[in-house]
Inverse folding.
């Protein structure tokens, strides 16, 4: 199979779903898309040619930090013949309570994702103007290398952005990143994302901490990079919180 996250975690790289679907089709293999960051409110990979879509429903499908869950979507044939037998006999089924919570979460999905995107763009633009920041990665910024592609296949940018801090070397960049994290009072320090509350993560020491440093560097995940999943607060409050650490 071809498997991709788009936008990717934490770099927000955008994969061309239509082009990858054509490559996969030509080779007779399925294209699987992790649609966590966008959710179906902002991006519909099956309509773009993907065969299977996966979600950590723990993230924006719930969107309120309440339950763990997941979703796998595809054609009726795939669901009936491939997915359902595994789900039925191997047991990865939702509890009734989690299913109910997720169903309630879906009722507000499109409204939440629109506001997450609006807030994230405001925070991304504010970060881009800060002298301590080397680079901001967010698909809805004109400076994003795949901005045009993102606009062609997404309805908005989503909640997640990443930014790199300036510093003379890895140690200085890491110290700067940790200072920002330590300065936060409003943002939750957690490797999770997909909550009403904004969350901040240092990928190099958490989500991607087990990658060898060379592989991490090659992927572009630097010691001075921070990922923010922008929540539904007033974005001015999020910026004020980040400013505390940046100023330090
Ligand atoms: C894009 C993406 N996919 C999948 C996951 C994994 O989620 P889970 O642990 O709920 O399977 C994450 C977690 O951060 C993620 O960001």
């Amino acid at each position: 199979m071809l498997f991709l996250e788009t936008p990717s975690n934490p770099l927000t790289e955008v994969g061309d779903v239509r082009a990858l679907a054509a490559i996969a089709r030509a080779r007779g293999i399925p294209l699987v898309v992790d649609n966590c960051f966008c959710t179906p409110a902002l991006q519909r990979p099956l309509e773009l040619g993907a065969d299977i879509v996966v979600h950590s429903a723990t993230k924006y499908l719930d969107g309120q930090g309440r339950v763990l869950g997941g979703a796998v979507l595809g054609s009726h044939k795939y669901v009936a013949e491939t997915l359902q037998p595994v789900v039925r006999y191997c047991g990865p089924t939702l509890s009734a309570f989690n299913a109910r919570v997720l169903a309630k979460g879906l009722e507000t999905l499109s409204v939440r994702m629109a506001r997450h995107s609006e807030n994230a763009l405001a925070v991304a633009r504010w970060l881009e103007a800060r002298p301590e920041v080397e680079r901001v990665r967010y698909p809805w910024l004109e400076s994003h290398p795949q901005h045009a592609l993102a606009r062609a296949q997404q309805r908005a940018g989503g909640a997640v952005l990443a930014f790199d801090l300036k510093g003379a070397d890895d140690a200085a960049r890491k110290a700067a990143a940790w200072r920002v994290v330590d300065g936060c009072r409003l943002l939750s320090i957690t490797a999770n994302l997909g909550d009403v509350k904004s969350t901040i993560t240092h990928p190099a020491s958490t989500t991607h901490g087990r990658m060898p440093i060379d592989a991490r560097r090659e992927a572009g995940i630097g010691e001075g990079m921070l990922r923010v999943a922008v929540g539904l607060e007033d974005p001015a409050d999020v910026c004020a919180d980040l400013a505390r650490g940046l100023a330090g």
The domain at 2-107 is CATH 3.40.640.10 (Aspartate Aminotransferase; domain 2). The first strand starts at residue 2 and ends at 5. The chain has a mean pLDDT of 96. DSSP finds nine helices and nine strands in the chain.
